[in-house]
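Progress against Task 2.4 (sequence-to-structure conversion) is shown through the following example record, which the project officer requested during the mid-term review.
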Amino acid sequence: MRIKVSFAPEEMSEGLAAVRKAFPGHFGAGGDALEVRFIRQCSVRSGAVRVVGDRQKVDVVYSDMSCAFRGLGTILGTDFSRRGSVDLAETSPFSMRGLMIDCSRNGVIRLDALKDFMVRAALMGVNMVMLYTEDTYEVPGERFFGYLRGAFTQRELRDIDRYAGTLGIEMIPCIQTLAHLEQVLQWDPYFHLRDLPHILLAGDRRTYAFVEKIVTAASSPFRSRRIHLGMDEAHGLGTGRFQQIFGRKDPFDIMNMHLGRVRTICRNLGLRPMIWSDMYFRLGSKTHDYYDPEWKIPARAVKDIPKDVQLVYWDYYHKDPEFYRKMIANHRKLGSDPVFAGGIWTWSHKWCALPLSFQVIEASMSACRSEKLREVFMTMWGDDGMEVDIFSALPAVEYFCEHAFSDRVEMTAVASRFEAVCGTSFKPWVKAAENDSVPGSADGGKTRDNTSVILLWQDPLFAIADPHMKPWEWRGHYERLARELFRFARRGGLSARLEYPARIADALALKSGLRRDLERAYRRSDRRALSKIAARDIPALQKAVRSLWECHREMWMRTYKPFGWEVIEHRYGGLMARLQTVRKRVADYVSGRIDAIPELEAPLHDPWGGIRQRTLSLYHARVKTPSCIK
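Structure tokens generated for the chain above:
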């Protein structure tokens, strides 16, 4: 079906041009083209869009630009040739339907990739995007702010803000003004601003001169007058240099004093701030737990929380809507409705954990809808190096948007719109998550476990996760998964991104049983089997890892800036060097050049015996070696 836009308000012209560029085969004139008119009506309820017409002509009646592009996504996903008429109306109760993309943990997304991502998100119904930038934005005059980290320039941020605006998307800066600043505070010119290595020194006038500088730099490129100031996970606040200079103070008082000073900076700049809410709940918990039901915050501390600073309740973990409802009620006890931030599970993974993401989105959005929250967004973090392909989150973005517009979501509707706006099949994108959701995974694979990360990066001789996971039983699973994903990847377009999880599965099929096979042959003194492993199995694995490295590098360079790739490449280089050493060690033993392989004589034990399920969630640094020397 081809679309001919016969009328649209001027405000939509640039956004429509962006969509035409992204979908060149879907627009054009001709007698068989579907005529589409965009009609903005002030009388239409906020957050509403209606697509009405027949197989020749369709009107999109909308309340705001974001809903207009949501309507266009509906048209792209509807087969009008099989329908005599159509009348599809929907209204979102959420004034904010947002996304937050982590750009601080190696992967600073390229502008062209971000634009491609956003145009598809706009067609799903997204109307707000944050780029989470701890230090990855330009601050004029600060040479070591974002040093060698690929920071966005002021010009780049203005460009992306303008582009987002054409699609009805508000860009809100999202930074840090208290903790999570270790990337900056590691450099000598900023030592005087430290409380702890990751926390700013509250109460010092130089700190607030610095904060004013970064808040100005972060907000200047954007038209929005809102800003996210961070201030989460300030563990140990006031216990470092602060205590040496100012003495021991109540953490609540430090938090409120610092927030008050930063809030004044924002007020002077005409900005409306929000912060993550966890520090108030952690400080009120005896166990420092954000989700502690026994939290108690002193009344004086609650009174001093600025009421014009929005609190953002973040929760990526719970699968019961009732838990979210209780936490929303707890936030309201602090004086206002929170903004809700859920999770699309991209962090610590190589491919988005889609089954888990679907489950937590459904639970959280159900609670937000029933509690009548107005502002929600989903986070896409990059913990442990942003190894993930951020585009793998798109099925979950679509799932989130369907929940934002409907209280009853069918997966068939999710798949239909995803396929329409992404030009690729839905099922294999979800299937790719089976690199982590292996047979026997707890809760049907709806866990945070990052099996593929563990199996890929654990040392081939000191495979510390093997006793717990028994990964050799999954070889057939990975072989089948690789074949299926390679088949879909050959279709081109966004489907080509499936090559990355296919390469992961291909490598894991060969690596998952390597240590066990080596040990078995070695303990039997089966030099023939060892020779076969050294001459055939390890070279095949080396080839698969090299192909994965090259595929990942290609994906990275077209998705993220080159800065940060060196962190990931060190991991591949270390693995490939270790495989070469393993091959040589085995060959030396087979040939008699050495009379033992002590690494294979050392027994492996299960450090996670208390965990019932076989799969785990671990960082690269935890599995690459049993040594604490990283």
